[in-house]
């Protein structure tokens, strides 16, 4: 109907105003716009994940003719797929898409304006990416690549991403993905040449060798924002179909993050705070990669008065700058290891020692001896539970007597996504699940599940929270660790399972409070 009305209006207008001309200017303008729109949509179709790879050539040819009709067809497919995977009807999804389109038009933002990020990328010496590339004509023509690189970094910061991954999807395309709240989301898809240029720009500003495509490399750069500066760590590797690059967004809030901000129960907060206030002993954080161990360790350091206590950290790499603390970064190439650095800092009169990660027997032994001799030691270890942390240290060759006397507290931790407050809806529980909750006296009336909206980008979650299981090393447990060899086998069999049950109970409490969902609990804990 809209097309018919438009044609009628064009006809009346042309008959009244352009009756003396041999052609209709309005229709000519419409034809030119149609051609330009078709050419634009050819690029959209070329990199659309909705079009199978073996049919892209045919789709491109069809786009030259059909143009907007093909675009409408792709949108219908996308809406149908989303409708089948959610409980929303097709009309609801289509209406939401229309509202988003009108909001997009009213905001005045267009696809061409995306690369204008408004941030400045700097290398480790403070030079901007434009200075790194130079100012000759050939480099100036690459300005759009630098703008695109800045746009990617800006989106990662605005979206609270912890990592940026740029890797080849096939022989002709690369995907750029952001890890937000622990889950990867696709930001955009680029053709191979454009993606390689973006990777080279990141490697250049990170002081990495652009010519080396196969061997792994490491680097770092910064992004200057109007009100802050963000730091990034970069790692590259040669993979199938090309080169992959991973960018870690270093924690920008660690300087001010406190234990109270974690939302942990008062009982757990009291246990950890009591261990921090002790003058000596080791507090060991454990959990898998991405469970927030380092962030929690920074929160512990922020509970310490660094004006009156000498705090020294040994990290690989330094995640955030802590005022009034001495921070040392590990560099194996320069023979600066955890063990050698720990020996040195013990002569620097430390009150508190923070170790980024315990990886070997020598580091573990030095840290535990320091905890015995009047130092408060904070450290992390990669393992799934408190029981596995004890067995891991014993497997490294640490003496049971040394372990029992130096260790004060173990904290196992996980991160769970928070439900989006704007779109969460009451959970639909099966009769069997309701009966189980009723039997265990678990209140299921306030349980919610994820839906998805514009604020949370359709995921149903926004932000994360920590659940932890602190284990105080009591005198009885110290004696068991030091003397009872049967404890080791017991920890291997029953300890890990028991710790997992405790974490699941903590997570279930958050589900009952409506803070997260059963699906998220199953994803994180199992």
Overall helicity: 40-55%
What is the strand tally? 16
Mean pLDDT figure? 82
Please state roughly what percent of the residues sit in beta strands, choosing from under 5%, 5-15%, 15-25%, 25-35%, 35-45% or over 45%: 15-25%
Shape: globular
| Spatial separation of the terminal alpha carbons | 53 Å
Q: What is the CATH T-level topology of the largest domain?
A: Rossmann fold
Report the CATH C-level class of the largest domain. Alpha Beta
Largest sheet: 7 strands, antiparallel
Q: What are the low-pLDDT stretches, counting only 5+ consecutive residues below 50?
A: 1-7, 12-23, 103-114
The structure class reads alpha/beta
Which architecture name of the largest domain does CATH use?
3-Layer(aba) Sandwich
How many structurally independent domains?
Answer: 3
Order of strands side by side in the largest beta sheet? 1-5-6-7-2-3-4
Number of helices: 19
Q: How would you summarize this macromolecular structure in one to three sentences?
A:
45% of the residues lie in helices and 21% in strands. The protein has 526 residues and is α/β, with parallel strands linked by helices.
Notes on the structure:
It is a single chain. Helix content is 45%, strand content 21%. The chain starts with a helix and ends with a helix. It is an alpha/beta fold and 526 residues long. The protein folds into 3 domains: 23-109, no CATH class; 120-249, Beta-Lactamase (2-Layer Sandwich), CATH 3.30.450.90; 259-417 and 465-515, Rossmann fold (3-Layer(aba) Sandwich), CATH 3.40.50. It has a 7-stranded antiparallel β-sheet, with helices on one face. The model is unreliable at 1-7, 12-23 and 103-114 (pLDDT under 50). It contains 19 helices and 16 strands. Helix 15 (400-406) packs antiparallel against helix 17 (475-483). The chain has helices spanning 2-17, 25-46, 56-66, 68-85, 90-107, 129-133, 137-140, 143-158, 192-205, 266-277, 293-302, 338-345, 361-372, 386-395, 400-406, 431-439, 475-483, 486-512, 518-524; strands spanning 120-122, 161-168, 173-180, 183-191, 217-224, 229-239, 242-249, 281-287, 311-315, 326-329, 352-355, 376-382, 407-419, 425-426, 448-449, 461-472.
């Amino acid at each position: 109907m809209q097309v018919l009305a438009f044609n009628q209006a064009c006809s009346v207008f042309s008959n009244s105003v352009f009756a003396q001309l041999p052609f209709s200017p309005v229709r000519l303008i419409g034809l030119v716009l149609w051609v330009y729109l078709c050419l634009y949509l050819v690029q959209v179709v070329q990199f659309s994940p909705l079009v199978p790879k073996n049919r892209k050539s045919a789709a491109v040819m069809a786009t030259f003719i059909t143009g907007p009709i093909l675009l409408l067809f792709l949108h219908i497919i996308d809406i149908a797929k989303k409708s089948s995977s959610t409980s929303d009807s097709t009309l609801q999804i289509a209406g939401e898409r229309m509202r988003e389109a009108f909001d997009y038009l009213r905001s005045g933002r267009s696809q061409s304006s995306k690369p204008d990020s408004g941030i400045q990328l700097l290398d480790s010496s403070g030079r901007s990416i434009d200075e790194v590339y130079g100012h000759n004509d050939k480099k100036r023509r690459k300005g759009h690549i630098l703008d695109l690189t800045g746009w990617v970094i800006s989106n990662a910061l605005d979206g609270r991403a912890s990592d940026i991954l740029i890797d080849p999807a096939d022989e002709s395309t690369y995907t750029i993905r952001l890890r937000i709240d622990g889950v990867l989301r696709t930001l955009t898809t680029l053709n191979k040449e454009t993606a390689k240029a973006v990777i080279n720009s990141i490697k250049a500003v990170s002081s990495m060798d652009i010519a080396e495509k196969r061997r792994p490399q490491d680097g770092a750069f910064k992004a200057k924002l109007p009100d802050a500066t963000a730091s990034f760590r970069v790692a590259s590797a040669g993979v199938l179909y090309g080169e992959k690059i991973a960018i870690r967004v270093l924690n920008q809030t660690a300087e001010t993050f406190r234990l109270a901000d974690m939302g942990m129960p008062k009982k757990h907060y009291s246990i950890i705070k009591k261990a921090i206030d002790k003058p000596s002993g080791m507090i060991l954080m454990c959990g898998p990669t991405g469970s927030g161990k380092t962030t929690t360790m920074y929160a512990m350091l922020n509970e310490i008065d660094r004006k009156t206590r000498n705090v020294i950290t040994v990290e690989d790499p330094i995640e955030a700058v802590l005022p009034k603390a001495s921070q040392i970064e590990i560099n194996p190439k320069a023979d600066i290891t955890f063990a050698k650095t720990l020996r040195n800092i013990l002569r620097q009169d430390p009150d508190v020692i923070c170790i980024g990660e315990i990886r070997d027997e020598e580091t573990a032994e030095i840290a535990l001896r320091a905890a015995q001799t009047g130092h408060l030691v904070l450290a992390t270890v990669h393992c799934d539970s408190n029981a596995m942390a004890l067995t891991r240290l014993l497997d490294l060759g640490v003496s049971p007597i040394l372990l029992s006397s130096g260790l004060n507290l173990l904290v196992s931790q996980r991160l769970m996504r928070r439900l989006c407050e704007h779109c969460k809806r009451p959970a639909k529980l099966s009769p069997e699940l309701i009966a189980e909750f009723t039997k265990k006296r678990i209140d299921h009336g306030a349980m919610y599940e994820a839906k998805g909206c514009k604020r949370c980008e359709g995921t149903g979650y926004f932000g994360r929270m920590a659940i932890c299981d602190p284990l105080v090393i009591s005198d009885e447990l110290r004696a068991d660790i030091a003397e009872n060899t049967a404890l080791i086998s017991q920890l291997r069999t029953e300890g890990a399972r028991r710790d997992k049950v405790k974490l699941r109970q903590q997570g279930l409490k958050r589900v009952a409070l409506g803070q997260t969902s059963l699906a998220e609990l199953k994803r994180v804990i199992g």
